[in-house]
Amino acid sequence: MLVLGVLSLIGSFAAVLWSLGMIGVSHKAVRRRLVPAGGPEMPDESTLKIAKTTNKRIGFLVPSRKLQAYERTLQLGGRPYGWTPATVVRLKIVLTLVLSGGFFFLLVLPAPGMMKIAMWIAITVMAFIVPDTVIAGRATERQAAIELALPDVLDQVTIAIESGMGFEAALTRVGLAGEGPLADELVRTVQDMRLGMPRREAYGALAGRTEVEDLHRFLRTIVQAEENGVSVASVVRGLAKEMRVNRRLRAEGRAQQVPTKMLFPMMACIFPVLFVIVLAPAVFNIADTFAGR
Predict the structure, then answer these.
(1) Where are the chain's structural domains?
(2) For domain 145-248, which architecture applies?
(3) Read out DSSP for the chain?
(4) What pLDDT score does 2 carry?
């Protein structure tokens, strides 16, 4: 019965997620929207009405400031699986109700106890905060990937410019040929400019979608170089060299933090085992000695 209960719980949970559209979406959906075959796809009027209605439905559940925070985190994370703030709220509600209700019937009802009630409360709290943790982790990973790939992308842009391409064409070539979040953002920036957005506003929109300080500095420098008539290739080459040095310094800094981060796992997992192996024979000998007396 316990196995059947767990299987039914997992099946119902997966069915609810599939019905809400939270699973079954390819991770390449964002990139397909960035580079459509027949031009950029714009949402139709019905889609906009549905999104507005959904936001109104969840407005009484979550404050607008929290929805804006979800929107910002999802933007930094590249909108994983096509999630929206409404999707996050629904996922939090579904996870909390399904897991809390399921484990309540499995743990608490058959034989109530303080330990089981504490476990049920912990599971409920974890189910409520898991979506926040997932989108926050996705945003952090995406920004770290952009920061890591930026120097190499700037080198490719420099090579493309020196081969005779314009700056916009170089960004397009590097974005379409590359992979990862930075390439996707470059493609989207170029598409914004082709749709009529001024170059400076497109750069500002790119900076607004990220929190990488090196990328912000690169965009500010490009704007100043274009306004003052400075060679963009030389500017990009210098920035790429400087950012590569900064990347190496950050890697060295993280490497220096490894011993400190490993201290707690060693104390919690490795040292107790060593103490048992080293001290167990002595403890047994002392116990035999006292037992013999």
Answers:
(1) 2-30+44-138, 145-248
(2) Up-down Bundle (1.20)
(3) -HHHHHHHHHHHHHHHHHHHT-SS--TTHHHHHHS-TTS-----HHHHHHHHHHHHHHHTTS-HHHHHHHHHHHHHTT-GGG--HHHHHHHHHHHHHHHHHHHIIIIITTS--HHHHHHHHHHHHHHHHHHHHHHHHHHHHHHHHHHHHHHHHHHHHHHHHHTT--HHHHHHHHHHH--SHHHHHHHHHHHHHHTT--HHHHHHHHHHT---HHHHHHHHHHHHHHHHT--HHHHHHHHHHHHHHHHHHHHHHHHHHHHHHHHHHIIIIIHHHHHHHHHHHHHHHHHHHHHH-
(4) 58
